[in-house]
């Protein structure tokens, strides 16, 4: 394993709806996931996050596991409806008290709290008013940021505004396979802008309350590849279109202050019928202290049918016989090097320091998980190669600390360094937990 700089941050990540449970306790309002899981067929085997890992009641046990692991930092998300049950207006003191206790426990264990403000659990009351299709949701998000910064900002300095706005737009509003379950295809594009506008407004609120705040956003990015049998001009155009929709639509406004011209790639004009207003891009492009990157695998595309029906690309399977995770995702560590060096080449000095805010793999239940160890080792080596080529990577947060509620897959996918028995909520560290603990200790020696 390569050596990383002494100041490199070692962390792990989770998300509120996936681990907290206590779905209707202590005044918490309903989120879109509380609603979506009750839709017949929406989640595999009808699983819900009602109890999940019961982290809400067991957080001290989980912080003790993090301390044993030797983490420098812990990335978690705040449940917006736990803090503001209807998304705006009256706060719920018991929700804020919970995050107070969690932050204090982390600091007491020598672990830096790194909260994400939005990890897909929008208050249902805001969805009832249009959700992220409604511009007002961006303003409510800025107000929510101000509330939590006022309460936690004396102890929390590193903040992440959004998690994977592309995935939330596409899966939640485009294809309907995640909450809120809308299937709007390209009519979901306003969701991209309103999330990014919310990020900009939240950034301003965080810096107003916490002058020395470090503000990041966590984008899910993917290198786009063609199969060797897909090399026509139309295939190349399809790859460029996918790259624009998945990557550049969310990175360009943040780092360049402008949207790519989607119309040049067979998609609607980026102004989206007046959705983008004067001053919005300046708000979105406020300088970042870091760019979070969530990486799992490259995406292969080919040209769509001629003429295209719907999207200007088709997704494809790689021809190479890659190993696969339990999710069926190809294991491609060199894709992370490709992604990071590609970001540096595209954005140059505009690229802020990078943090790997998610990276991990689902493997079968049980504590014998050599494949997970190999996955983590391979991707950390890929990060080191990117750093050798000039990419400023400051830290690594593996996904995930715990097995959890994996969205539409329920409890069937196991990403945790720690196995969770969902009948008893018993935590059992896996071999990968001990491997990561030893790695962190060795990097500090």
Automatic annotation (TrEMBL):
Enzyme class per UniProt: hydrolase
Family under the similarity heading: Belongs to the glycosyl hydrolase 1 family.
Keyword Hydrolase: yes
The EC number(s) this enzyme carries: 3.2.1.21
GO biological process terms on file: cellulose catabolic process
Any Gene Ontology CC annotation: cytosol
Catalytic residues in the record: 164 (proton donor), 358 (nucleophile)
Biological source species: Streptomyces showdoensis
InterPro entries to which the protein is assigned, alphabetical: GH, GH_1_N_CS, Glyco_hydro_1, Glyco_hydro_1_beta-glucosidase
Keyword set, alphabetical order: Carbohydrate metabolism, Cellulose degradation, Glycosidase, Hydrolase, Polysaccharide degradation
Molecular function in Gene Ontology: beta-glucosidase activity
Protein name according to UniProt: Beta-glucosidase
Catalytic reaction list: Hydrolysis of terminal, non-reducing beta-D-glucosyl residues with release of beta-D-glucose
Pfam families (UniProt xref): Glyco_hydro_1
UniProt-annotated binding residues for substrate: 18, 119, 163, 296, 399, 406-407
Highest taxon in the source lineage: Bacteria
């Amino acid at each position: 394993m390569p050596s990383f700089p002494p100041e490199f941050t070692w962390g792990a990540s989770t998300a509120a709806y996936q681990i907290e449970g206590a779905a209707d306790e202590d005044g918490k309002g309903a989120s879109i996931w509380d609603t979506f899981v009750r839709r017949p067929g929406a989640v595999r085997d009808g699983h819900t996050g009602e109890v999940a890992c019961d982290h809400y009641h067991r957080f001290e046990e989980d912080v003790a596991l993090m301390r044993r692991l030797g983490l420098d930092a812990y990335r978690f998300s705040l449940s917006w409806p736990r803090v503001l049950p209807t998304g705006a207006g009256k706060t719920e003191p018991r929700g804020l008290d919970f995050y107070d206790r969690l932050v204090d426990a982390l600091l007491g264990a020598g672990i830096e709290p790194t909260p994400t403000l939005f990890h897909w659990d929008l208050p249902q009351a805001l969805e009832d008013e249009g959700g992220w299709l409604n511009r007002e949701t961006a303003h409510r998000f800025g107000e929510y940021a101000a509330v939590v910064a006022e309460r936690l900002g004396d102890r929390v300095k590193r903040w992440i505004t959004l998690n994977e706005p592309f995935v939330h737009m596409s899966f939640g509003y485009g294809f309907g396979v995640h909450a809120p379950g809308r299937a709007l295809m390209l009519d979901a594009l306003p969701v991209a802008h309103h999330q990014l506008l919310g990020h900009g407004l939240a950034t301003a609120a965080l810096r107003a309350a916490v002058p020395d705040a470090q503000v990041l956003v966590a984008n899910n990015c993917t290198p786009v590849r063609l199969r060797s049998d897909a090399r026509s001009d139309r295939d190349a155009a399809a790859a460029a279109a996918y790259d624009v929709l998945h990557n550049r639509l969310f990175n360009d406004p943040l780092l360049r202050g402008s949207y790519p011209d989607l119309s040049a790639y067979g998609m609607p004009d980026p102004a989206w019928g007046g959705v983008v207003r004067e001053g919005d891009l300046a708000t979105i492009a406020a300088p970042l202290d870091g760019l979070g990157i969530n990486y799992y695998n490259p995406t292969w595309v080919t040209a769509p049918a001629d003429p295209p029906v719907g999207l200007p690309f088709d997704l494809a399977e790689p021809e190479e016989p890659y190993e696969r995770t339990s999710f069926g995702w190809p294991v491609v560590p060199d894709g992370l090097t490709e992604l990071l060096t590609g970001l540096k080449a595209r954005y140059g000095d505009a690229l802020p320091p990078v943090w790997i805010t998610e990276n991990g793999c689902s493997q079968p239940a049980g504590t014998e998980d050599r494949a997970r160890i190999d996955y983590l080792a391979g991707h950390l080596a890929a990060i080191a190669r990117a750093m050798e080529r000039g990419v400023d990577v400051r830290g690594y947060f593996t996904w995930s600390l715990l097995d959890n509620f994996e969205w539409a897959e329920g409890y069937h996918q196991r990403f945790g360094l720690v196995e969770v028995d969902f009948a008893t909520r018993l935590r059992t560290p896996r071999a990968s937990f001990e491997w990561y603990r030893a790695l962190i200790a060795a990097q500090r020696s």
